[in-house]
Amino acid sequence: MANTAGRAKAPKLSKADKQALRGAKRAKRRETWGNLKQAFSLTRQQDPKFLPLLVLVAVVAAAVVYLIAFLVLGSPFVPIPLAVLFALAAGMFFFSRRAQKTMFAQAEGQAGAAGWMLKQQLRGDWRLTEAVAGTTQLDAVHRLVGRPGVVLVGEGAPHRVKGLIAQEKKRTARVVGETPIYDVIIGTGEGDVRLSKINRYLLKLPNNISKDQVGTLEKRLAALSTTRAAMPKGPVPQGAKMRNVQRTVRRRS
């Protein structure tokens, strides 16, 4: 009795609250389906082989599952739902991988692509500070703090970015002491890391500091980020006039 009385009852939602909640869920579902539709259309436009390969993957997955289930169960009807289920799963997996590949191919080489990718697609426990250094030509250096230490990620013209990274490395070394500092340039040149491979590069780095040290290090480095270079919010579309983009970025800053 005492236990029952001591338990706090969850407040009942009003009719308006329930309607608002249902509306939010519907809006979220519409947004998700809209994003999927947009990704599908974009991938189909940029990749002529996408649709035939998608159908092929789904049909092969369904055929293999149906055959195995038929041999095991001996019924020609029971395997059909399983085959359809696996066809849909295989199709969705292929679609997501192909869409991601198309997205990276479109963004690669565009100003702001690396910062956008680190913000949207980064895996693992990393603390990102965008554009800790940059130029008016939209070259930039982004800083990551994680278990491996500090990683400086550069994007832009290699001859300018290398100088930016060297300067930022000196500034960072004064604060982090013996903590390892890695640097990488996003690009397609020799020694560069492709935009689609940056997560793989980061996952290969060894853990050199503890989680507590990561938080402490981030706070110490925050003082270096009081003035940051202005960068576009995402990849700059191909064909955009650089002078206009630079003017827009300066206004935002």
Give an overview of the whole structure.
With 253 residues, this protein is α+β, with helices and mostly antiparallel strands. The protein is 58% helix and 11% strand. It has helices at 2-6, 15-46, 50-73, 79-107, 113-121, 158-176, 198-203, 211-222, 242-252; strands spanning 127-134, 140-146, 149-155, 181-186. It has a four-stranded mixed sheet with strand order 1-2-3-4, sandwiched between helices. A hairpin with a 5-residue loop joins strand 1 (127-134) and strand 2 (140-146). Helix 2 crosses helix 4 (79-107) and helix 3 runs antiparallel to helix 4. The longest helix is centred in the first third of the chain and has 32 residues, at 15-46. The N and C termini lie far apart (62 Å).
Number of strands: 4
- Mean pLDDT reading: 80
User: Unreliable segments (pLDDT under 50, ≥5 consecutive)?
Assistant: 236-253
**Order of strands in the sheet with the most strands?**
1-2-3-4
Query: How many helix segments?
Result: 9
Report, as a whole number of angstroms, the end-to-end distance: 62 Å
Q: What structural category characterises the helix and strand content?
A: alpha+beta
Largest sheet report: 4 strands, mixed
Outline, from the CA principal axes? extended
Radius of gyration: 25 Å
Helix content: 55-70%
Give helix and strand order, one letter per element, not per position.
Answer: HHHHHEEEHEHHH
What amount of the residues lies in strands? 5-15%
